[in-house]
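Morning F.,

Quick status update on the modeling queue. The single chain you submitted on Monday has been processed. Sequence for confirmation:
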Amino acid sequence: MPVLTRAFVKASLVWLALALIAGVWQQIPGSLRAGLHSVYIHLLAYGWLSQLIFGVALWMFPLYSKQKPRGSTWLGWLCFATLNSGLSLRVIFEMLSAYISSPIIAWMLVLAAMMKWLAGVAFVALTWRRIRER
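Structure tokens below.
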């Protein structure tokens, strides 16, 4: 299994564990849970599911070429870094936005969304040419 795939799969398991903690935390009466449902959904959708899909797809899709079987390495790591950074920003600032109203927090959420979008674009760019007719 390629190193990048292992990184995606391991990160997905970490995000899944955090999502499960957030899911339990939501149910504790009297806990600080404002903004937690959105965080929970993002942890599941982007943290666990998207990363697991990205990692396995990069591993299992047809090879790009003999020289670069999985395409551009730097683009793969860019996808990994922007997805995880964007998700981390979303988790932090989504929780803060429930308690503090600030334009900086709002713009950090925009930045988080843009980073996740960039990760998606990088993934498409990385896999598009690997999906071809034989």
